[in-house]
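Researcher: Please predict.
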Amino acid sequence: MTERERFIRALKSEPLTGHCPTFELVFFLTLESIGKIHPSQQHFEQWKQMSKTEQMLHINYIADCHIEVAEKYHHSAIFVHPNPWDYENIVRLLETIREKSGDKYFLMMHGDPTFEIPDGENMMTFTERMYEDEDSLKAEAQKRVDEWTALAEKISRHSGLLDGFALCSDYCFNVNPFFSPSMFSEFVAPYLQKIIETYRNMGFYTIKHTDGNLMPIIDQIVECKPDALHSLDPQGGVSLAEVKRLYGDRVALCGNVNCGLLQTGSEEEVVADVRRSLKEGMDGWGYVFCTSNCAYTGLPLERYELMNRIWYEEGIYK
């Protein structure tokens, strides 16, 4: 099987032999690891002034960056970061990655229209709207779904380019979700369900990401039927074993290696946590090994590579 096929089997909770699939939602440590600036950290204000040759050189750079990271760390999937973000550039980048790597990797991109935790400048205004401007807020939520649906429809016409979407709207703080369960059921869940169903009908898989303590709303998220949940954040008190027990027959799981320990814990603590995640996640299939967030800027590369090495040596289905 290709890595792409192995990743899909994990999303379907089907039996596997060999390595448990792994990937990272984002691997920001590209400069230190492979000598390339991460695509999302590049700025091209003069993109429209570039010649077609210059643009394609840039697209090739991004494609190579993604593929080199996947090859070095044996990832099964690539979260593609088009930059700049527009339909034509998205398709050219996906085509370039496929030309260079074939069908080896599962390719996904961001595709979440649902409301996330608002930033500090807009938090009070957004909260007021949930109580005083419900109809307008719901109309905005539906408009966002419609816009992402239109983009997905255009991408779906290019058969075999994209496998799925990572739905990366964060709903939760470490203590609790920003949305109460009742607010989530009114302003988020219906639109999350719509976009997941829409993507599925187009043949795309979905991985729903949120950091923090999602437990008060996890029932509603699972009811929306994503193929997988990411990141099962232990810093938010989320237990991989408990989520697996409660929902492992309904949704695949990704993540749970504690980023806090990767950042500041001892080497012994990191090793123990990686082994715990492998043991709890791999039991009963339906698991993709990765961090509880991403390999973010400032995370020591040697810690990520320690995590990856333990997975390579021990994360194997017999």
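Model: The chain is about 50% helix and 10% strand.
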